[in-house]
Amino acid sequence: MQSAIKTLLLAASLASTEAAAGQIDLTMTGFASDKGMARIVLVEGIEGYTGGKPVTLTATVPIDNGTARWTADVPRGTYSMIAHHDRDENGELDRPLFQLPLEPYGFSNGAWTSAGLPAFDEVAFEVGDGTARQRIRMRMNAFATLLQVVPVGAVALAALFTILTIRRRRAVRHA
Q: Are residues 166 and 90 both part of a single domain?
């Protein structure tokens, strides 16, 4: 009986050692401000990346001087990550118009695309024994940036037009 218990304890010990074989050390940069939080989504394999498998892990970490750091112990495997600057702290990557992200975001391996997702081989990384270091730089989608700037630009243009019209009317009256 004691031999069976020792064998079970040894097997459980080896299984837990194998399950948490590696670590991910992620540094995120490019935050325009420290307001809000950095959100990370970790998925395993191409199945996780394409939505055929549940998300492996999510995390929210504070931003300090434009940088955020996160570490996690994970089993050996192939992973990918997306991170974003959750400026309004609603726990989501805001995408109200045309599904374009309105918050800065980035992918593992520094992969980037302004439309859709990068190819899996561009974002995939291996975790084995030891630490897998990753860097993600936050970026804004160019189209989403335009969508945010255009309303401000339209208001500024309307104000400028109004000022010029008023000045022109005054100049005509005084002439």
A: no
Measured in degrees and rounded to the nearest 5, phi and psi for residue 6 equal: -60, -40
Range of the domain at 131: 20-140
In the 8-state DSSP scheme, what is residue 109? Answer: G
Q: Is 104 found in the same domain as 173?
A: no
Q: What is the 3-state secondary structure (H, E, C) of 6-32?
A: HHHHHHHHHHHHHHCCEEEEEEEECCC
Q: Which residue has the tokens 């950095």?
A: 38
> Residue 54 contacts by C-beta under 8 Å, 6 or more apart in sequence?
48
Residues 28 and 80 in one domain: yes
> Distance (Å, rounded) from C-alpha 96 to C-alpha 93?
10
Indicate the SS3 state at residue 55.
Answer: coil
162 and 126 in one domain? Answer: no
Do the strands 37-44 and 68-74 form a parallel or antiparallel pair, or are they unpaired? unpaired
In this predicted model, what pLDDT tens digit does every residue of 149-159 receive, in sequence order?
A: 555 555 555 66
- 3-class SS of residue 143: helix
Report the distance separating Cα 57 and Cα 75, nearest Å: 12
pTM: 0.70
Could you read off the pLDDT of 105-134 as tens digits, one per residue? Answer: 999 999 988 777 899 999 999 999 999 999
Residue 84 shares a structural domain with residue 148: no
